[in-house]
Design a protein that fits this description.
Largest sheet: 4 strands, antiparallel
Order of helices and strands: HHHHHHEEHHEE
Shape: elongated
Radius of gyration: 22 Å
Number of domains: 2
Oligomer: single chain
Distance between the termini: 54 Å
Structural class: alpha+beta
Number of strands: 4
Helix content: 55-70%
Number of helices: 8
Strand order of the largest sheet: 2-1-3-4
Strand content: 5-15%
């Protein structure tokens, strides 16, 4: 009776090796995504989505290896969810999320920050227009937030009665 259960669950060494491979691939891909910048982690263009989908397919064999069993796939998926939960609640979360980046200050773009974050002037202008601002000179500051959105503070800034989140065109 124990033999059919062992066959269904697989070899314990293979199960542990699968869990180890999934954890290593998860952490390495997380570092890759962090190094790629805030944009790919926040609002996605079709190219960003395609990259993430292909990335998931590319690392699938590295995680599960030769174990194509149902148990191997479920173990991998379960461990990914556990790792995601643990990291989202850990102190490491801040290092993976990064910090907001000032893109525009007192009507002047900050070219080094724009280049580092991969935001071009056209994208910045689109975000300004979405916030009801048509010219760079009318902006006190524009910040690329850690979620990939661009926050804009116009020079004639008056706090609205009710704040709402405005997303960039990258969310569409």
């Amino acid at each position: 009776m124990a033999e059919p259960i062992r066959e269904a669950l697989g070899d314990p060494f293979t199960v542990l090796f699968t869990l180890l491979r999934v954890a290593v691939v998860y952490l390495v891909v997380l570092v890759y995504l962090r190094l790629s910048g805030k944009r790919i982690l926040g609002q996605m263009t079709p190219l960003d989505l395609l990259t993430l989908l292909l990335l998931s397919n590319a690392v699938q064999n590295a995680m599960i290896g030769p174990d194509n069993s149902l148990v191997g796939g479920l173990l991998g998926a379960g461990l990914l969810l556990v790792l995601d939960r643990l990291l989202s609640q850990s102190t490491l979360r801040r290092s993976f999320l990064g910090h907001p980046t000032l893109l525009l200050h007192d009507g002047k773009p900050l070219p080094e920050n724009l280049v580092r974050e991969g935001v071009d002037l056209q994208e910045l202008m689109a975000a300004l227009r979405e916030h009801g601002v048509g010219r760079l000179e009318d902006v006190l500051s524009a910040v690329l937030e850690v979620d990939g959105t661009i926050s804009v503070v116009p020079k004639d800034h008056v706090l609205p009665k009710r704040l709402r989140k405005i997303r960039s065109s990258r969310n569409r």
